[in-house]
Amino acid sequence: MTTTQFTFEIHARQGRARAGEFHTPHGTILTPVFAPVGTQASVKAVTPAQLFEIGTSLVLANTYHLYLRPGDELISEMDGLHRFMSWPGPILTDSGGFQVFSLADSRIVDENGVTFKSHIDGSIHEFTPEKSIEIQENLGADIIMAFDECSEPYDWEYNERAMNRTHAWAERCLLAKRRADQALFGIVQGGIHLDLRAKSANFLSGLGFPGYAIGGLSVGETKQEMHAVLDLVDMNLPENKPRYLMGVGTIGDLINGIARGIDLFDCVLPTRLARHNAALTKSGERLNLANASFTQDPRPIDESCECYTCSNFSRAYIRHLVIAKEMLSATLLSIHNLSILINLTIEIRQAILEDRFQDFLMQSGLGDLPAYKLSTEEI
Would you say 280 and 309 are in contact if contact means Cβ atoms under 8 Å apart? Predict the structure, then answer.
């Protein structure tokens, strides 16, 4: 697989945490990084210019949704996602596997792929590894994902079957891929079962992907179970390739994921919370801006935050927008929530570069490394 346009450099390590650069045809991604989710080629309530202003360097778009509407062929005719959504930086598309997983009552899985009903009009469609790659090549993202089967985390026998299908589909995705200007990542599966996760990570490592994702987490397991999987997977993936934890995006999850060698994150959480009137703070607290306690509160959402929202608007004003059902409330809260997570990864990257991530972890109070010693000697 040709990957000459994609290189990954690690500039500093502290424990398992890494600060690096992933070079793509549409720009360099400084890692660790948080990517806002633009499910339908749009990060909800936020313009591309606003994303750029808050420091966004990577945006995710959704293969399943864009295939159904407006259609991947139309996007290809419009010169691909970058031009279609007017985002000049790197874009990542998922494979559609998780969305199909979520359609549990309207899908059939077999060795060839997945047959499912559209959530829009009930029409029948089939995703195969080859179809997923074809759609993603039409979309034209910089980073694309192998088609996988995401299953519930606890059933060992089903997770083994899903893992074996994921491995077979990964090989088919590699054979189907044609574009050299896209980096195809493999996806490690296996639920919470460490034996399966180790087997999956080792198998996919042998296929030589330019990067690896960890899928099937944040789907019902405990934080301790998630961390155990990340500890294990970290030790079984190539050190010189980026690692992407899919669909995970709380402040605590980012801190603990980075401490376990994760480089890329994405999640709908910050913009979804914004549309439900909730604001994140650097301490990990969530504020419900609909609460009457904020009616006359002149403070910004977070006095330590320098985003556009906190630099210009009070909690009282944002509560007024929420109660009046003004669309601007979602925009201002989305800008703030995304800024919190994006700036968190920027701050952590700098801490790793300056050999003080251990102090950052202790000061945050959100680190959870009970079975994982963090040391500067451990590489």
Answer: no
